[in-house]
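Bench notes, afternoon.
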Amino acid sequence: MLVAVLCVLSVNASAQDEKKKPPPRRFGYDVDEMTFPQKTPADAMKSIGVALDRKNLSYMLAHMVDPRYVDYWVDQYKLDYAVGNEEGKRLLGFDRLVHETNTYFKDDPKLFKELRLFAKETDWNEMDDVAIGAVKSLPARKVYLRRVDERRGQIGSGILVVVGRAL
């Protein structure tokens, strides 16, 4: 009987240890939940605004954009590098994605301004693992956030952000 109790306690302690594990590092960036919280869609969108204001697109791409999207483009860009190890090619591909994203925002400053507005004034409609945000002053635009992992129940930790026309 004592052995069974100890086994149960051991399993519970190990489950709690797994919950406390920090999220994995991506492209050299640890998760920064203090600066970029993502517990709610509003928190996640505000964190995106903070990243944009600080011109910290590297962190945003590493931890706030859907990892499947980022990994797809990193894998495409790394094909341009014939020499080097796999991790080095991935980092170079990530750097190119950051550069392309910076260029995209520079070429469309209106999008940058709209995302900052979404970070401040969004009304959210949450359904399961998806949140749709709207701003009254931009009726033709929406922001879509999708939960991509279950880390501490957050909607964020890798978010697909799409700004598009309302259907």
